[in-house]
Amino acid sequence: MAAQEGNTSFIPNFSLPQDHTSSPSFNFSYGDYDLPLYEDEDMTKDMTFFTAKIVIGVALAGIMLVCGVGNFMFIVALARCKKLRNLTNMLIANLAISDFLVATVCCPFEMDYYVVRQLSWKHGHMLCASVNYLRTVSLYVSTNALLAIAIDRYLAIVHPLKPRMNYHTASIIIALVWIMSILIAIPSAYFTRETVLLIAKSQEKIFCGQVWSVDQHLYYKSYFLFIFGVEFVCPVVTMAVCYARISKELWFKEVPGFQTEQIRKRLRCRRKTVVVLVCILTAYVLCWAPFYSFTIIRDFFPMVFVKEKHYLTAFYVVECIAMSNSIINTVCFVTVKNNTMKYFKKMMLLHWRPSHHRAKSSTELDLKTSDMPVTEEVDCIRLK
Question: So where does this one cross the membrane (predicted)?
């Protein structure tokens, strides 16, 4: 989900219990506490919050359905069909695994927190920190995997004579993607807290999210700027440069010699693949740019929102746009580009066959997969 970042959850207009209000242990301008607190009103009861709740509920349900089912099918197909195990699909598998974990582990808890209990956490501190941490790791894994795919395509098309990435190198890159994501997401778990908040008529809600103390606001800003640069600006710029060079190579460069039908088919397939990848990059920017922009304004220019009573609704809309990126990735990479439905359907048909036909059919599945397009590249030409 591809998820949402752990430091951007919001709480409605709640107030802290009276024995905490005099303590400077929380800074409401940095981290998750960032809404004006009105003791006489429960914002979870008004129409704007109700609208936001419906929007976030639909988004979470879509993620659980599309990313949960779609990525599960791709993971099973990849594990079962040897012909699917090319380098590009190894990188795509990272997207599938991270989005599948978020859809099956994080989204049910978030549905309960945001929609059912209306911003009140009832599952303990350990799960609170774990859910925030897992969805943050998923975002970074998705970003780094998209970057690795872009670089792989750049080397294959712009520098075809240079040695291609082999499986050993790809395995190292995949390990680095996960290790880097796991390490830089640690603060999202370390600073996650459960905090009891009072709303109107002495009702209590338990807030789950990151809390940075007043004396740590400079560290929070530095950490956010680091994440913004390393996990958004640099990857987007690098991917844009890679795809610009690839586009120049495929559309604006004359191919020397006589173009056979095989060469023209290869060119068409490469162009089609690049168009899909550029669309995925565009969707990533359109989904996450509003999210990061909203966070920057909230944390660095808090006076813009300090008097806005209902900007929680605006955040929900921005958050839903960001979370929808995982659905787009699943549809483009998993369901469409790899013909996962065809593989999965064939495996299901083999599963229900009589047992004496199963062994032969299972072997045929691996032998005959070359007749079924794995990706546009593999179907047309192996870019190795």
Answer: 54-79, 91-111, 131-151, 172-191, 223-244, 274-294, 314-336
pLDDT in tens, 224-283: 999 999 999 999 999 999 999 998 888 877 666 666 777 778 778 878 878 888 888 999
Q: Helices marked H in 213-369 — which ranges?
A: 217-228, 234-251, 261-300, 311-329, 340-351, 355-367
Write the pLDDT tens digit of every residue in 108-122. Answer: 998 888 888 877 888
1 found inside a domain: no
Beta carbons of 210 and 9 less than 8 angstroms apart? yes
Query: Are the C-beta atoms of residues 14 and 198 closer than 8 Å to each other?
Result: yes
Whichever domain contains 42, its CATH number is: 1.20.1070.10
Is 94 within the bounds of a domain? yes
Q: What is the pLDDT of residues 309-366, one digit of tens each?
A: 667 667 767 877 888 899 988 888 776 665 666 666 666 666 555 554 554 544 554 5
Q: Is residue 244 part of a domain?
A: yes
- Count of structural domains, the chain: 1
User: Is 226 a member of any domain?
Assistant: yes
